[in-house]
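hiii, so i know i said id send this last week but things got crazy w the move. better late than never?? heres the sequnce for the chain we talked about at the cafe, plus the structure i predicted for it. fair warning i was half asleep when i ran it
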Amino acid sequence: MSDEAEYIERLRARMVERQLALRGITNRRVLEAMARVPRHLFLPAEPPEEAYADGAVAVGHGQTCSQPYVVAYMTEWCEPSAQDRALEIGTGSGYQAAVLAELCREVITIERVETLAEAARERLKRLGYENVTVLCDDGYAGYPDAAPFDIILITAGAPSVPPPLLEQLSEAGRLVAPIGQGAQRITRYTRQFGGLHRENGLDVRFVPFITDRQ
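okay and structure toks below
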């Protein structure tokens, strides 16, 4: 391993320890996934120190890659297992999809900006994430052709969850999204006995959920 590769591994290990574990992320599989995914390769050409810093990073077209802690928090709230099928709305750079791919059997991710979708598709393929499918579309309707999903993760802030996405949750499925006007709160919906159980978590501020559908 080169000196640069070793340095980047140390940066990633420090990110996991200081930004995630010390701030309450306890799911061992999530911590290990965050330690494996090369975050710097999903971001614009920046010094690696910035890729692993405690903050969001712009990825173009008004989109961002969330700070590592928020990625880990939302992933942990999804309670991923190795047999789960996940749907992500808002691919962005593909980083969150890669984290989910480390933890789930299959990931379908939808990005409405064609340039971002194409770049994420190429990046994920190059890095060996063969269990990820990147689609370019409006994410409001989800992907009913492959439903139901055990996990649905929305990476943009919305006043409420689009009804088609809730309909595509499996029994015991979890949908995690930043919900609210302006500032949002990470919210989890769990399908239980045909109904939905709602829990509120971390206060956040995401870019808005954009859709052409109502």
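btw Residues 3-204 form a domain with the Rossmann fold fold (CATH 3.40.50.150). thought thatd interest u
miss u guys!!
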